[in-house]
Design brief:
With 126 residues, this protein is of the alpha+beta class. It has helices at residues 8-20, 68-76, 89-97, and strands at 2-7, 27-33, 35-40, 47-48, 51-52, 55-56, 81-86, 98-105, 110-117. It has a four-stranded antiparallel sheet with strand order 6-3-2-7. A three-stranded antiparallel sheet has the order 1-8-9. α1 (8-20) runs antiparallel to α3. The mean pLDDT is 93.
């Protein structure tokens, strides 16, 4: 099984935008074209300058990963695609509580899993 790994700190913005800019059924998009990434499906689009804000999969960012093309093909295959994933306020809460989101892919299914709970350290007054 192959897993696309994302930092929840990057994905959180996509989820927030989708929740705030969709009338019913907020979604994010899992995309493979020039790299592998997640973006909001909300409208108006979440733009930075003249580009959509996207959260890149680990190792699949064409702006910083030299082997993004081969790594992207290894993880999700050679064909471009867009998959819509529903999000809710619970998704946003998980982005705040966990450090990593993984999309695990087999030939017959995709599964979204949150990994590595964020640690909270409490200081003791002495």
């Amino acid at each position: 099984m192959k897993a696309c790994k994302f930092k929840t700190s990057d994905v959180k913005r996509c989820v927030e935008h989708a929740l705030n800019n969709t009338k019913n059924g907020a979604s994010i998009l899992f995309v493979h074209d020039d790299g592998v990434y997640i973006m909001s499906a909300g409208t108006p689009r979440d733009m930075i300058g003249n580009k959509n804000y996207v959260a890149y999969c680990e190792g699949c960012n064409p702006n910083k990963d030299d082997d993004f093309y081969d790594h992207s093909r290894y993880l999700v295959g050679g064909d471009d695609f867009t998959e819509k994933l529903r999000v809710t306020k619970a998704t946003l809460k998980r982005c705040e509580e966990y450090e990593e989101l993984q999309i695990e892919i087999t030939e017959t299914k995709m599964q979204v899993i949150f990994f590595r709970p964020k640690c909270v350290f409490l200081a003791k007054n002495t």
